[in-house]
Write a structure and sequence with these properties.
The protein is α/β, with parallel strands linked by helices. It has 14 helices and 13 strands. β12 and β13 form a beta hairpin. α1 crosses α11 and α2 runs parallel beside α11.
């Protein structure tokens, strides 16, 4: 049975063309900085983000913690959205690995709320507090329904951080989705921050990998931290080639994922299913049913019919569109979900 896997855009499978690029990749030892394919990928990422340099890492989580460590945050406070990936879904790396205190900021709009940051900001003049050193921004914001923030909206947060002499890191795992949704350049977003992590293994469709981008001296420091936490890579050009293919071929096509999500959301609304309202939606649809006791029943029933997705809370769900789900599959999956919701009597 054909499976329509909507659990995440991380479930994408490399295309035949991507696999061919991987097979043909020229490789070397990247710890010695001898892998030519990795160098091409890092150069391409630096150019796209408008930064001086980039560093290839295995995952978005490794990218974020490497980026944070490279900002020398040990003993300081880091501000991050209370529902952000960095604060909630990275194993507590801010505290356990980086040795920093995470100040969680209201981010109901998808971005840290300036008035809340003002309330919790700590300066170095009070010996009782860990001074606030780094602000983390997530764009798009996963738990806000894949909401994309504009450059102008991000700039409000960035300007506040600069006024308070704070550094800024962008968790841009899905920054290309934000760029497409808002019609703005990735480099314009990244110009506002000191570092950015971009993920290749989500909507871009590569099987593995992320990149940390920033100033040249900062990336040299990040290379050290990547090694220290066990992330030194050897003949990694084989998978870096997938990243090059993704950046060359799979950015613009993400608009189709957004279109599929919008169409399915309308199908749900027309069927009377409650969905999360998102100002600038991308490739995700969050929806609810009324009876929390039937959460697992719905997941199981749909899975038996070839549609996989996940629950984010009792009676709440997320579906994510990606390059392995075409428009026909998106509609078929939505119809199955709607039918099963009606069948179980939500």
């Amino acid at each position: 049975m054909f499976c329509m896997d909507l659990r995440s855009d991380t479930v994408t499978l490399p295309s035949l063309q991507m696999r061919e690029a991987m097979c043909k990749a020229e490789v070397g030892d990247d710890v010695y900085m001898d892998d030519p394919t990795v160098k091409i990928l890092e150069s391409k990422a630096a150019e796209l983000t408008g930064k001086e340099a980039a560093l290839y890492v295995t995952s978005g989580t490794m990218g974020n913690i490497t980026a944070l460590l490279s900002h020398d945050i040990h003993g300081y406070s880091v501000m991050a959205g209370k529902d952000s990936h960095i604060a909630n879904n990275e194993g507590g790396g801010i505290s356990t690995i980086a040795g920093a205190f995470c100040q969680q900021v209201i981010d109901d709009s998808g971005l840290p709320l300036v008035s809340d940051m003002e309330l919790i900001f700590k300066n170095s003049s009070n010996v009782h507090h860990a001074p606030s050193k780094l602000l983390c921004i997530e764009n798009t914001h996963n738990k806000r329904g894949g909401m994309a923030s504009t450059v102008a909206e991000m700039k409000v947060c960035a300007d506040w951080a600069r006024e308070h002499k704070m550094l800024i890191h962008l968790d841009g795992a899905r920054i290309f989705n934000a760029s497409i949704a808002c019609g703005e350049k990735v480099s314009d977003y990244c110009a506002l921050v000191d570092s950015v992590q971009i993920c290749l293994s989500k909507g871009l469709g590569a099987p593995v990998g992320s990149l940390v981008c920033g100033a040249k001296d900062y990336i040299e420091k990040a290379r050290f931290w990547r090694k220290r936490i066990g992330g030194g890579l050897r003949q990694v050009g084989i998978i870096a080639a997938a990243g090059i293919y993704a950046l060359d071929n799979n950015i613009e096509r993400m608009a189709l994922d957004h279109s599929n999500a919008a169409f399915v959301k309308k199908m749900f609304l027309d069927a009377g299913i409650e969905t999360l309202d998102v100002a600038r939606p991308t490739n995700m649809v969050y929806f609810k049913i009324n009876d929390a006791s039937k959460t697992n029943e719905l997941l199981s029933a749909c899975a038996q019919r070839g549609v996989k997705f996940g629950s984010t809370a009792p009676a709440a769900y997320r579906i994510v569109f990606h390059l392995n789900i075409d428009s026909e599959s998106a509609i078929s999956a939505a119809n199955i979900i709607i039918e099963e919701i009606k069948r179980i009597g939500d």
